Amino acid sequence: MKPPRADPDVPLRLELGQQKAGVEANGMTDHPSEIGFLGLGQMGSAMAERLLRSGIRLHVFDPSEAAAARLANFGAATYQSPAEVANAADLIFACLPNAEVSKNVLRGPDGVLAGARISTYVEVSTIGAGAVEEIVAMLAHSRIAFLDAPISGGPAGARAGTLAIMAAGSAPILARAASVLGHLARTVVHVGEKPGLGQTMKLVNNLLAAANLATLCEALTLGAKAGLDPDQMAQVVNASSGRSMVSETMLPESILTGRFDFGATVAIMEKDVALGISEAARLGVPMWTIEQSARLWHFAATQGMAGEDITALIRLTESWTGTRVRGAASVSGS
């Protein structure tokens, strides 16, 4: 099953494995007509913009009036509470900064659960499996269907419709959301029926990304201190066994240029790594190497870098050595 795409040159891959037949045969493929969106931060606003440009009617809420007003300029209907969004939309996406916020938007007279129209709730935030289990229990009392669907790809991927989505939930619920997900993602992988598995998959991915970025910053700082040219280091690494998405994308576009503009903050990465370490402890999985990466991210977040882009981590390792890792095309003063 391939949901319709706004951009035919960016095909969606909906990878359901053994679940695919269930999606196609179940019959729960009605497409919601009114879509809601909660949370208009860096990722949320980029996703909302993408949906609006795709012609979807969107009902949004964010406590920041400026963020909501910006989306209103793109054509979104704005509201004063999550409950109002849940009165206007039958399918709601939530892209929120942490587990407490994700749970709080559901509660009380202004919360999603007070809405009359909502039938399906999609959590794209990274909040951990434990928080998702609590949310599932809260929604079950109101008979609201739930899809655990964290995302990867950054704001640029959201605007381009090339995100990767790790979906966990029943196949019929995924099928119902697929027409909207198709505007946001190049790949949707159904990782299982149990909500929370999507969160775990996202944490696995982010633990790898965090460790890759931390080790890249340290290793390239070593090379620069020794006198190697940063552009040549990038060329060699990306033609060799050390390459990764971090070296292929973040390094040339955000680090060597000095732009530091990937679109995720140190605070968010530190939060995700801490969630991953906590999940590993709950399951009894040793994290000897990744725990070292976690210490570096925690140190950066507590040393005034929490609001900086994750690619600015290179500044920390540079500061310890008195060197700079910049390419020939770096912006002035970076």
CATH architecture of the largest domain: 3-Layer(aba) Sandwich
Q: Indicate the mean pLDDT.
A: 91
CATH class placement of the largest domain? Alpha Beta
* Beta-strand residue fraction: 5-15%
CATH superfamily of the largest domain: NAD(P)-binding Rossmann-like Domain
Overall 3D form:
globular
Tally of helical segments: 14
Structure in words:
The protein has helices at residues 20-26, 42-53, 65-73, 82-88, 99-104, 129-140, 154-160, 171-184, 197-226, 230-237, 245-255, 266-283, 288-305, 313-319; strands at residues 13-15, 35-38, 58-61, 77-78, 91-94, 120-123, 145-148, 151-152, 163-168, 185-192. By secondary structure, it is an alpha/beta fold. The chain folds into two domains: 13-194, Rossmann fold (3-Layer(aba) Sandwich); 200-319, N-(1-d-carboxylethyl)-l-norvaline Dehydrogenase, domain 2 (Orthogonal Bundle), CATH 1.10.1040.10. Helix 9 packs across helix 12 (266-283). The protein starts with 12 loop residues before the first strand and ends in a 15-residue tail after the last helix.
Give the helices and strands, then pairings.
Blueprint: E1 13-15, H1 20-26, E2 35-38, H2 42-53, E3 58-61, H3 65-73, E4 77-78, H4 82-88, E5 91-94, H5 99-104, E6 120-123, H6 129-140, E7 145-148, E8 151-152, H7 154-160, E9 163-168, H8 171-184, E10 185-192, H9 197-226, H10 230-237, H11 245-255, H12 266-283, H13 288-305, H14 313-319
Parallel strand pairs: 1-10, 2-3, 2-5, 3-4, 5-6, 6-7, 9-10
Antiparallel strand pairs: 8-9
Helix pairs in contact: 1-8, 2-7, 9-12, 9-13, 9-14, 12-13
